[in-house]
Specification:
Helices cover 54% and strands 11% of the residues. Strands 5-6-7-9-8 form a 5-stranded mixed β-sheet, with helices on one face. The chain is elongated.
Length: 456
């Protein structure tokens, strides 16, 4: 009653609609009745007043449930006592007209909306009193039938109201539990993300601190040999420039992640050296010793990679292999590391065949952020910190795949060449018409205001 066509209807509109419906039904006795029905009293002013009182109070039932029910019950009893409406049960049989249905609807709504004490009062006092009144007003020989008919009608309406209220309470509790579970999952996911970001921030902090210390040492060395060996000093300056660029990159990544206060006091010097891509064979050997069959393949020519990217690749492979052992057991996996210099990226792919027949394994719940572990969240945070991408999911034929792409940085000569010869824009680019095919924009060169540092 509170919704129509999937849209919520205001309570006042619902009650007003019911009041108008039963008001129209209250005037049914004005229609000519069949010849076999006992004659009714001719409607007069009192009839109109009682008919309105038997239905219109439903418009304010939500505010005054019990008074509205009492007024409607008394009005219907008065209509029957004055013979304005047919008896509930008489020579013509049982006749449950619109006025009796209006009272039953009021009972249902009172049981649905009222407090438990009000509902108990209705079933213990109001319904028996109404049924006895109808029985007393019924014709001789039909009092028992009237008592049973009115009692069954009103008790059924009351029971339906209480059942609907109980089902609504169960539904609300289920929705509240689902909402609480969703909030808990979201909180767990946020906690896992913050924990992983804190760990990444600590590791990147170590890398930045190492690079800055190295720059300081190289600067001191270049200053001391500047007069004795100019070529060597020039080479040191170039190394300092490359180290500075790498440090700026790692520092930007460090600023993109959060560091918790609990880990701020940790001593980075106590941490072991961070693993690199070169340590992957040793990792694969350790996993093979644990019972996992791994086919390890490396393609392409290894290129220079920032320390943060080295660590990211290692941790992703480590987490993927751990998940394979945990969820698929002693199965077969294929690890491929591809150095794609042409596309300036490093691609890492690990696919397993899934659990072997007859070997139990824990099911993968990659879609739930609050599972027992947060491996996928950690992978995504790490790969996002280095500007890469990660794709995970089940294989069509069984098993699971982890596919990570890490961008390769441009070397200093390649950066200088790209600055000197910017790539040709696409034909649909607005700057295409003003571009000189010889390799320069018309007018002032784009890098004229940013000359290369001295010593290079």
């Amino acid at each position: 009653m509170d919704s129509f066509a999937g849209r919520r209807v205001p309570p006042a509109v619902t009650d007003a609609g019911l009041a108008l419906l039963f008001t129209a039904g209250a005037f049914v006795p004005l229609v000519p009745m069949p010849a076999d029905v006992p004659a009714l009293r001719t409607p007069d002013a009192l009839f109109f007043v009682l008919a309105l009182l038997s239905a219109l109070p439903l418009a304010i039932h939500r505010r005054y449930p019990l008074p509205v029910l009492l007024v409607m019950t008394v009005a219907v009893a008065a209509l029957q006592a004055r013979h304005y409406i047919p008896h509930l049960s008489g020579p013509q049989g049982t006749s449950i007209g619109p006025s009796y249905m209006g009272v039953a609807t009021a009972v249902l709504l009172t049981a649905l909306r009222g407090a438990p004490r009000t509902a108990t009062l209705v079933v213990a006092a109001v319904i028996p009193a109404a049924a006895l009144t109808e029985a007393v007003l019924a014709p001789d020989g039909h009092r028992i039938a009237t008592l049973l008919a009115d009692g069954v009608l009103l008790v059924a309406a009351w029971a339906l109201g209480r059942l609907t209220r109980a089902r609504a309470a169960i539904r609300d509790q289920a929705l509240e539990r689902a909402s609480a579970l969703g909030r808990a999952q979201e909180a767990n996911a946020r906690a896992a993300v913050m924990e992983e970001r804190a760990r990444i921030a600590r590791e990147l902090h170590d890398i930045v601190a190492h690079n800055v210390s190295l720059m300081v040492v190289q600067t001191i060395a270049a200053d001391r040999i500047q007069d004795r060996d100019g070529d060597k000093a020039h080479e040191l300056h170039g190394t300092i420039e490359e180290t500075g660029r790498a440090t700026v990159t790692e520092l930007r990544r460090l600023l993109d992640v959060l560091r918790t206060e609990d880990e701020a006091d940790a001593d980075p010097s106590k941490e072991p050296p961070q693993p690199t891509v070169e340590a992957l064979p040793a990792l694969v050997d350790a996993v093979r010793a644990a019972g996992l069959t791994v086919d390890f393949t490396t393609t392409g020519t290894p290129a220079e990679l920032p320390a943060g990217s080295h660590l990211t690749v290692y941790r992703i492979v480590q987490e993927a292999l751990t998940n394979t052992l945990k969820h698929a057991g002693h199965t077969r996996a294929e690890l491929t590391v591809a150095w794609e210099a042409r596309h300036r990226r490093l691609t890492v792919r690990l696919c397993d065949d899934g659990p072997r027949p007859g070997e139990g394994a824990a099911p993968r719940r990659a879609d739930l952020p609050d599972g027992p572990g947060h491996g996928l969240l950690g992978m995504r945070e790490r790969i996002g910190a280095v500007g890469g991408s990660l794709h995970t999911g089940p294989r069509p034929g069984g098993g699971y795949c982890v596919h990570a792409v890490v961008p390769l940085p441009l070397s200093a000569p390649a950066q200088d060449q790209e600055r000197a010869h910017p790539p040709l824009p696409a034909p649909d680019d607005p700057s295409y018409d003003s571009y000189d095919i010889a390799g320069h924009y018309e007018g002032r060169p784009p890098y004229a205001d940013h000359p290369r540092p001295a010593g290079r």
